[in-house]
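Lab notebook: predicted structure, single chain.

Context: the supervisor wants predicted structures on file for every construct in the current expression panel, including those that have not yet been purified. This is the next one on the list. No modifications to the sequence; it matches the entry in the shared construct table.
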Amino acid sequence: MSHCSVGLVIGSAGFGKTTLLVQWREIMMKAGADVVWLALSADDKNLSTFYAYLMGALQRLGVIVDSEIPLGAASGDSIDEVVAAIVDGASGVNRELFLIIDDYHYVADPRSHRLMQKLLDHSPANLHFVIAARVQPPLSLSRLRLMGMVKEVDCANLPFDLAESRTFLEQNLAGLKLTAEEFHLIYGLTSGWPASLQLIVILLRSNPRSRERLQDLGWRSDDMQAYLAEDVMAHLPGEQADFMERVSVCRRFNAALAGAVTGSDKAGELLQRLEEENLLIFRVEAEDRQPWYRFHPLFGEFLTTRLMRREAAMVAELHRRAAHWFAERQLLAEAVRHATLGGDLEFAAQLIGRSAPTTWALNHLSPLLRLLDRLPQETLFSHPRLFFLGCLAYALTARPAKAEAWLEQFQQSGAAQHVDVAFRLPIVQAAIEIQHDRTEPIIGLLQGRKPLSDDYSVMRYGPSALLAIAYAAAGRHADAVRCLDDSPIPEQDRDDEMALVVEGSRTLCLLLEGRVRDAERSGSVQHARAVAVHGHRSVSAYSSASSLADAFYELDRIDEAREVLANRIGLMQWAMPETMIRATISRARLDLLQESPGAATAFLQRQERHFRTMEQDRGVVHCLAEELRIALLESDRATATDRLAKLEVLGTKHQASLGFQAEIPAVVGIARARLLLASNYPDKALQALAEVRAYTQQYSRGQMDVAALLLMAIAHADLRQHEQEKALLLQAVHQGCALGLVRTFLDLGPALGKQLGRLNDKLGEEGEVAGYLAELLARFNHNQSSNLEGEAGGGSAQSLLTPRELAVLQLISQAMSNKRVALTLNISLETVKWNLKNIYVKLGVSSRYDAVSWARNQGLIE
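Prediction complete. Output recorded below exactly as produced.
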């Protein structure tokens, strides 16, 4: 502002305009600047009152006006005379002057605006105005903008982003320790709207147990409803309030849709007024030229609920109108959603039945499931395309039993003889098989299958993904890669959601082989694309998040693993088994590292019950094996013995299983070996691990093979067979280097670090492997010092920060922006901000400069 004539802070009620200006004013006054505050109210709308307050504020700044100049009828001459006197008075002050005018939207007299316009046009260089309002003031600032003399902060800048919301909640709820999932949930509810965040803080402070129902802490709170009713709605004309309530049934809307839904012939004009008045309405990106809008999520729900309480029958009619409008424009997902919410199920079924195959993709899954849950079975069977998509939807969302039952009844009805339907049934059967962890039948169902070029995208691209995963589950990794390579995604379809899911299957296949470094590269690109194109909550983003979190964890990029899993509990409940298992184990290990063994175990027990409900033995086995590992870390051998007894039952059951289920005896074998080593039976542990390695060799499971090698090395060390120990460690290090493994080593504890430390003389000139081992040992040392010192301990400067945090510090010391740091390290902008926040907290500093100075003083950076 020191270099601008005018500052504009424009935003809706509760967006923090006044708070921002209060903080800025404090900073300016500490620096010695003269800042005066003029706060307006509804009583100050007339010229005489505004003029009196303006002159009083200017006098407080030391601007001396020679004579009292009455404005009278505020003719052009009188305004010019006033402005000339003010300019002359301000020019005579030899310092910078700042005048804040808060709540300028109360100014209603056109003569007041003329006075301000003249004053801004002729203001001397040392007089600066900062204007805060809910709406853009009717002032012409084009000339000043061209000169770079206007600083603007609007509704796009005022809300907190995710990192800022997290910081705000942490500072105001220090004793509550919200989880990453809760942070994301609150941000999703509020979109960073400061007033709603403040109300949620008040609610959680007064009743900490209300965190269990965070989803209901939005408009449903009395404070939020009162705030929206009194501060946002109370002063609106009846026509405008009614229009807002009716159009709020739509998640997004434009003038044409709003007109069709509300019946108003002034929809365009009303929308423009809503946007100009910043009534919690935002523009959204769309492909057509007509602007699209949405309400803030909490505000939209508040409006719909007000309408529902008053005219429940009207809400259904509004949804039906929206359904027909969307259907006419071939926007099927939204048409089906509104038809279902409006109770017109037959129309929704007809929409799907007559739609072109290429128009259906995974983003239609949610409205389709909502329709299927309400649709009578006879209606379903009379629409073959709807039936097919319904079976697939239930199979893909971990409800294969319902899909199986439908499939059996449908085949008995004779409708399956239709050529069009019969061609598509194998993929439904394959989707059901993968949910049951039976991957061998999938190869028979889909091998050699050539999809139709104009088929549904899920049919064009889905079979190659399922077949590749089945091949990888069988240990046929070359066939998995060939399967994906032989079915390339055309460039024009790269952003199709099913195509992105297929790309995600490549990452999963790499993880199954143990190639973690390659999986991270593949997964990061695919996940970023999925989020950019389809959003954080899309199916493609969800499916890729599990694999990417697993890769991040193994690479010891803990904060990134937590971020990518945050607020994605659905990954652990309703997805493909492999996706649910990887997300579950990653989340449990993050809880163990960042929270406590108790928190990790409690989560695993919940997931174990969920997997049992689904009859998903492999999920149960992974949960039990992880619970056993945690119990041994806590020296709780009784619990570990109990978990192993349960594991042995499932291991015996699947002794002859194939594909994914062949993994079960191997996981049991690893768990058995851990307990045997803890019980001082290294010879028996070696027998168990020999069986595990037979599996890892047959199925090419590199990561598990390295884990088995390391446990065997520990067993030989216990037996004092040091040559065998070193040979196994060397083999594990070479394989770990090739695959990019880190946590597989670290999670075995500091004793393994000491064993690895004795390998340096064995590696000789093997540069890459020697460097890899050195990095591992550095991480072991860091973990050990952190464990010994605890949070309050001092320790070395090197151990205070993680390797990622040190890398961020090194780059910001080179004057890189956050965005440039993100690009250099191949991480997200949010992750850079998150790391910087951690650095500031650990070092007790508040700026990049202080953090860099500390690091230089400690010799960590040059």
